[in-house]
Each structure stands twice: as C-alpha cells, then as structure tokens.
Amino acid sequence: MKLREIGEFGLIGRISSRVSDGVGVRIGIGDDAAAAEPTPGRWLLVTSDMLLEGVHFDLAYTDPFRLGRKSLAVNLSDVAAMGGEPRHFLLSLAVPPGVTVEFLDRFTEGMLELAREHGVTLIGGDTCRSPHGLVISVTLHGEQAPELVVRRSGARPGDRLFVTGTVGDSALGLELLRRGERQGWAIDRHLDPTPRVRAGVALARAGLCSAMIDVSDGLAADLGHILDGSGVGARVELDLLPLSPFFREHAPLVSPTPSILALTGGEDYELLFTVPPERSGEVAPLLAETGVAVTAIGEIIAGSGLAVVGPDGREAAVGRGGYNHFCDGQ
Amino acid sequence: MKLREIGEFGLIGRISSRVSDGVGVRIGIGDDAAAAEPTPGRWLLVTSDMLLEGVHFDLAYTDPFRLGRKSLAVNLSDVAAMGGEPRHFLLSLAVPPGVTVEFLDRFTEGMLELAREHGVTLIGGDTCRSPHGLVISVTLHGEQAPELVVRRSGARPGDRLFVTGTVGDSALGLELLRRGERQGWAIDRHLDPTPRVRAGVALARAGLCSAMIDVSDGLAADLGHILDGSGVGARVELDLLPLSPFFREHAPLVSPTPSILALTGGEDYELLFTVPPERSGEVAPLLAETGVAVTAIGEIIAGSGLAVVGPDGREAAVGRGGYNHFCDGQ
User: Of chain B residues 306-325, which have a CB less than 8 A from chain A?
Assistant: First the structure.
C-alpha cells in the first residue's frame, strides 16, 4: 500500500494504535506536545540521534524491522552510558516516495519491540515526506538520581578500564555486508546491536564507575572522549581486547590487523568505563547478574593520550581513528 | 570555510561555545546525554519538529539566520499551544557537502538569538553529513503545572473561539516568494514567524482556555483537530477573520478568494483557542498585557464539522484544506 493512500494522519494513527500506556506518560501521541510526569528527585537525561539513508544505513543491507530496532538502540545506548533508566521517546520520520505502508509497519514493529523490552514508550514526534532517502530522528528520555549519573569526566590515574561484551564485531559485520554477505553473527551485531541498558543501570546503582561512555565511534575514539573529559591518559593492552570467536575466525580475512579493527571499529554499542582500583573486583560479579560479559583492558594513567601495549610488550601511541562525520567520505 | 576543515567535533565546539548556562541544566552539550533537573510538581512537555530542505524550506528564499530562528520557533509554538513554559532543546543537523561553516554559524546565531528571547537553552543533539539537502530536527522541552496544561480536547458547545494575531500572512508570503518577491511583511511572517509563547503561558496561568492549538497546517485544519479531539463542531464567521493590512492589500492579487486563503493557509503559528462564554470577556485585556492582538471569530457548537458563515450570512461546510505531508506534492 502506498503512503499517500493513508496520508500523514493515517500513518500517525497506524503508529499510535500500536503504542500502549507508559509509566509517567500523561499525554501521548496526538496533541501539540506530549506530557510526562518526572520522578521527584531525579534528573531528566535526554539524547538524540539522527540516522540517514546512505550515511548510517543502507536498505540493501538491512530490513525495516531491524532498522527500527537499531534506531532506538543507539539512543538507549547513550542513556545507558550515563547510567540512566530509559523512559520514553519521540520519533521523527521523513519518508521518501516509494516507501510502502508495509515497510513502515515493519519498521515501527521493530522499534516498538525493542521499546517493550526496555519498558520505554513512544510519546510523540513528527512525520513528513522526504525528497531523498529515509531520515530517522529519535530523541530518548531517561531518568536517574543525580548522585548516580555517570559522566565522562571522572576518570583518575590508577582506575581500571573495562569494556562489556566484545568489540570489532560491528565493523567486521559492515565489511562483510559490503563484500556481499548477508548473514552471520557479526552482521547481526551490526544491524541489530544490543544496548547495554541493564548493565549501565546496575553499574550506576552500585556507584562503581568514575566515567562511562558507549562505544559508537570506536573504542579508541570513545576512550579519547573520556581521556579529554577527565584530563588523563590511558594504557590499553591489545591482547586483552575481548574478541568474539566469530571475529577471531573471520577478521583476519578482511583485515591485516584485526586488533586495530577491534580498537577503532565503531558501532559496537558496548559500555566502556573506568573503576577505582579498590572496587574493580566488584565489576565482574555485578555484571554477571545482568548476563553481560565484561573485560578489564587497561588502566588510566597520568598525562594524556592513549598508549597501546602490543603483544611484544612494546607501547605505541595510537590515533583515534574513529568515525568523524564530516571528514569521512565527503 | 569548508565544514570538513573543522570536522564534526569542530562544528559541535563552535555551536557549544555560543551556548550559555540554562536554568535547571545540569549537563549540557558534550556527554552521552544531557541532564536537566525538572521543576518539582510540573509536567515535562516535549515536542519535536523536523525541517527538510526542499520540503519545509528553500534556501533560495530564506537566509540561514532566519532559518535558524524558524526551526526553533515552530517548536516553541507547539509548547506555547499547551500553555507551557519552554526550557531547553536539542538540535540535530544533517549537513550536505558544500554548506559552509559561515552558513552554519549564521544558522546557529539565529536559533540562539530566538532561544535567548525565550530563555531556552541548547543542551544537546546530533550532527552528521547528509547526501542530499539540509535536515534540521529540533526537540523542545517545556514545563507547566499539570492543572494548567491546555489540551485539544476540552472545547464545549457555547465556548467562544479566538485566534491571536492575523492569519493568512504566511501563505501569502510563500506565494509572493514563489513569484519572485524577496521582501515585505508577509514574507517576513513566513520566514521568521513569531511563536506566541507569552500569550500561551498567560492564557494557561489564567485558566481561561478549554482547548488550544497552534495554527501550523491552516486555521480550518487545526480547528478540525480541536473539533475531533473535543467531539464538537464550530461555526466561524469569515468576516471576523483577523487579516493584516498587508494581506488585505496584496492577497487579492494572488488569490480570487483571499478569505479562503486566510482560512486554509498554514504556518501562521498563531494560537487558536476556545474559552467558556462567561469568561470570554477576560481574553482581550489579558493578552493586551502580552502585546498580542486577539480576535473572536466564532463559537463551538454541538455536533461535528466546521460551518463557515459567509458575508451574505449563508453557512457553508468547509473542507479542512490543510497541509498533509504525504498527499500533497508527491
């Protein structure tokens, strides 16, 4: 079915009919603005990510269901990286001619499936037509007690550096997609990443982290933001980077330096965080309760910049190599 | 200067250096998410609008400064229509190749000028490149006491219908732009609309309105949302529509039926609201204090639909004729 047959208000109605009530939501989709009742004593955490066809996703690689999930996941990951509990979100969509109602239904179903998994509610947004390509903009609200919010700026020399899950899979998945593959674990990681919401909240509640960020631009680049924000340096041992069995098997086929791919590849949406040394023993047991693996990969040091220790024990300074939207591909 | 010379983080730094601290803002631009402290006992009001080059604006018609103002103004208008006090906002920008740093500086200056006028603070957002055309997505937060928030659903038969300012100017301005004109009052109204924030807040605080909306899709279309939301009808007297002197002089040159243009033309961003008859005498004195003109244009009636009374006293049912993003122009 073509979108023009149901019109803008038909599309909004189709989306809102799938949305159920949310905690604290007082006015949902359908008025000039949505209204939510904040939890007393908590800060509102808010993040926004925009995804453009041809920049952030390729409809030859992904299906609408997983695209819907990922569009929300990248925002959930940002709130998780502050230690926040996600609450509700807005979705703005610019839709090009030719996109069908069925495509948008599947997109919405995917997004709302992930929303249900995390107890978050769609409360508003905007829809319009797009002359060129699908544009998705999501704004997500979370909450947390002020004293539990984790910033990028609290890392101190001696703190241990941890990362959840495994890194490099998403970059490998994207490369495999470009080479014509359509299935496999790394591709799933790229198209349908898992935001570490429960891990982020557990870490915040335990008050363990001195700084935290999610790995979206690449581990080296995102660690750089912690180092800049905290005024410190870091030493990372390349051999300690957590790599999936799939990555160990397939990355050497696409990259002469797999560990550099793991260090700089983006979009893993794992949590990267620092913990004071005297509490670092609490990390693994805590995250085991959330079912998320965690690995110590190095430590914070005085000074600035990232030093990477290779398998031979030699240190090398490493550029960040992360994704910069305006210097890459233009 | 080209954007690639300063990169994504250069652009973010350039924007954030212009932003000053805001009331209740605890973490601004530069972390995974922003944090704000809600005012106890108030609801969070949130709205989002996306503006696409070639759909919502044409860079042949507007300059970046006014585009920046308008991108925020349309969101301020939504919060105003709930009776909310605007607080802070997020800006997501997708920028095509060829847009200069100077263009983006002027855009930001315009947006932040209007932000200062209303005491709102930029707290976050996203930036990326766009393969085709500039994309602007703004999410605005406001606040209001729950009992003062004005919805679309409270209009009752007998309520008087009011609109602020004048209507039709923006549609006239757009038509004049299409005909090659570049200056004049109606064009200013189209390119740099005035959100009626103070009027909306004053009306909410006085508890005068049973329903309110802003005129973005056109008076008839937006009134239709109130009628649908409230389960009522309305009678509007065409002769009572507030028309500017500029509109009265120039609209007949572009339209054989200027009053229909005023009834259906979009983007005036005036407030359209209903007031119980026994309190309708309070409206004009209250809004005079905010410097905003207001006109009674009809009343709410039982039933459904909009009846328009022409100069000859005859009633005609009127279609909504508002802007529907997917049925118009595709």
Answer: 324-325
